[in-house]
Amino acid sequence: MHAVCAGRIEDYGYLADGRSGALVGRDGSVDWWCPSRFDAPSIFARLLDDDGGHWWIRPAGDFQVERSYLRNTLVLRTVFTTRDGSVAVTDALAMDSNVRGHEIGRNPPGLLLRLVEGLSGHVPMVMSYAPRFEYGRVRAHLDLRGETLVARATGTTLGMTATVPVHRQRTEASASFTVDPGQRESFSLAYSSTYHEREPMPVDVPGTLAETAEGWRSWISEHNYPGQYPELVRQNVMILGGLTYQSSGAYVAAATTSLPVRPEGHDNYDYRYVWLRDFSLAMRALYQAACSLEAERLFRWLAEAIGDVGRQPVPIMLGVEGEHDLTERELDVLTGHLVRGPVLIGNDAWRQRQQDALGQVIDAAWVLRDSLKPMPDDVRRLLRSLAEQAAETWRLPDSGMWEARGEKRHYVTSKVGCWMALDRAVRFGTVLGSAADLERWAAARDEIRAAILQQGWNPSVGAFTRAFGSDVLDASVLVLPIIGFIPAADPRMRATIERIEQELTTDGLVRRWPDESAGFVICSFWLVECLALAGERDRAAALFERLVGRANDLGLFAEQIDLRTGEQLGNFPQAFSHIGLLSAALRLTEASMPAP
């Protein structure tokens, strides 16, 4: 069996089932899947090491590729064209059968489906199946049980079936077959927990694929978005849906770990967790995109997951079922994407104080307030505790939204997040607090605002800067007009936008700070919003459409984009980037409406 090499980040498509996500390369290889849940150990990790495990199906010779999702689904169809003819491979993670709408994905069967269909000619095909358990650390013997190849290790059982003859070689399997026009060959891989193992059941791959597609379409049909860019918005809502752990409703920041944000490899963190910031922004963006979110369920999960924090820092990130301890460690068994390590699991940012998260959560609750009537007691307690923390701790330095692991500072956006928490708490009125609480919160809000305007604005730079007393530009301050702290047309904000355009922007991509080598996708979409808010709607729309063209051929974004090569960098697909796109599309729609 010959060696294979992982592709570039943008070469991958994404599959999801409400519990986990898988990446499929343009070469037909499934190179990432953690079947039990997003942050569980992988069985395929070729994405991070050539020997990390894979399952590929592709033509035996050279080929060209065109691919797309079936309309309104995350079912991926890849067409391989060779000199002998053409063949389609359709891939999906199966959804629960006979379930529709927002109920899909809560109890998926743990099935990876692959259907090969001949389109023209006679195409020789090859298949290679090499599962590796616990991030590539363990190989298991493949045993034949009836017509199923079974592998068991580390509490995981995998059962692979195929309608073509398969050759077994201890821990791997392969097949060679030819597909004629109209011919179909089916492949499936079933995951189960070894100690709660279900007997392998025959899988109707074409039927289950059709059922899965219908499930996705029923889900997206509940999102009746009336604004501009409807197809694009629908697609990005679908991607965020694919990053959702449906049992709790939590959104993971990305489906992967340790994909580098710099070409040389750096800051290779694990993003398979729920950041309060991302969770709140996703809720708000999806709600505004006419998604019938179960707002009460999501906020109640958040209240339960955070618990009674008292005076302790609010956790800024959680596991998908509300876990707090996400201790980081390095895996020595994987070399990293294109040998650009290290590979990390867990994320020590869970220990940080990030004050802007306080405001993001209360702001999301404010936007979704009509869906929180009457407000449940546990949600009220959560929002009150966040407001109290903002009032009591806003003067403290923190790690900021970019999660600096060095010295804590007084980041401008952290102070703005505290201002936002108190501003929204005051707007809620007596729903959250007594008259005395509201008076105290309003006083703290006004004090924070005065401090930001005095210490966050640097007259010698002519812009709002990264932190109090700093002379460094930072694109994070683009959020100031977006959250309503200051109008985009205010001379200070207008000057800040211009400085960021001049000094941090290259070909429409906005770097976070001057010495960064890649554009940060959400910052680039924040610039779109700022321009729209400043009354430059046409320029904002042109930038938006240019940025949308930076996605891969399936509309997927990583976190950053290399300014020299256009290569996508960072974990993938990245919720933050797709949230930015959605918010910018909504802002452009708003900017197109006639003034009241």
Automatic annotation (TrEMBL):
* Domain GH15-like intervals: 229-585
Q: Does the keyword Hydrolase apply?
A: yes
Question: Can the keyword Hydrolase be found in this entry's annotation?
Answer: yes
Top-level lineage group: Bacteria
Query: Which stretches make up the Trehalase-like N-terminal domain?
Result: 6-183
Write the record's keywords in alphabetical order, separated by commas: Hydrolase
Q: SUPFAM superfamilies, from UniProt?
A: Six-hairpin glycosidases (SSF48208)
Xref: Pfam families: Glyco_hydro_15, TREH_N
What InterPro entries does this protein map onto? 6-hairpin_glycosidase_sf, 6hp_glycosidase-like_sf, GH15-like, Trehalase-like_N
Q: Which GO terms describe its molecular function?
A: hydrolase activity
Name used for this protein in its record: Glycoside hydrolase family 15 protein
